[in-house]
Give the backbone structure.
Amino acid sequence: MTAQPRENQASAVETAGAIAYVRRMRIAIASDHAAIDLKTELRDWLIEQGHEVADLGPETNDSVDYPDFGYKLASVIADGTAERGVALCGSGLGISMSANRNPAVRCALVSEPLSASLAREHNDANCIAMGARLTGSDMAKACLTAFLQTEFADSLPDGTGRHQRRVDKLSNPEF
Ligand code: RB5
């Protein structure tokens, strides 16, 4: 079955037999050498769905340092050029740690869709990280779909404000 977008909605994504409707977004994606193949696959898949995707590199699989790409990704999220970020390295650990050094970034390292969805619902995550050596491309797409289709609970009319209060504390820590 071919999934078709509804009027005024973005892409219809079919993942694991379920069809999800996802608003079109400005998404930046970055990796290190260990995740370049997954980056290319996810980038092209997101573009096919109609998203505006900025690929921040790298362009070859020559060895690079993940902080360089994590910081680059964080800066386009922080300045609003990208609404969401996708951060990939071998384990997802190094690039998520790098992106999270920027206080504007809430980057969630996930390996299954429930965490991807909760990262949005409770934590208003604006960046998802995955490990290309640990997570296959089908699972990565399922995680990304959950991440893109889930709204932050406190952006909804029945939000209580408690998640927003906690998220605010992430940017303004009082140790
Ligand atoms: C590169 O070998 C590897 O260390 C990197 O991709 C990542 O897994 C680090 O956290």
User: Anything to note?
Assistant: The longest helix spans residues 36-48. The chain has six helices and seven strands.
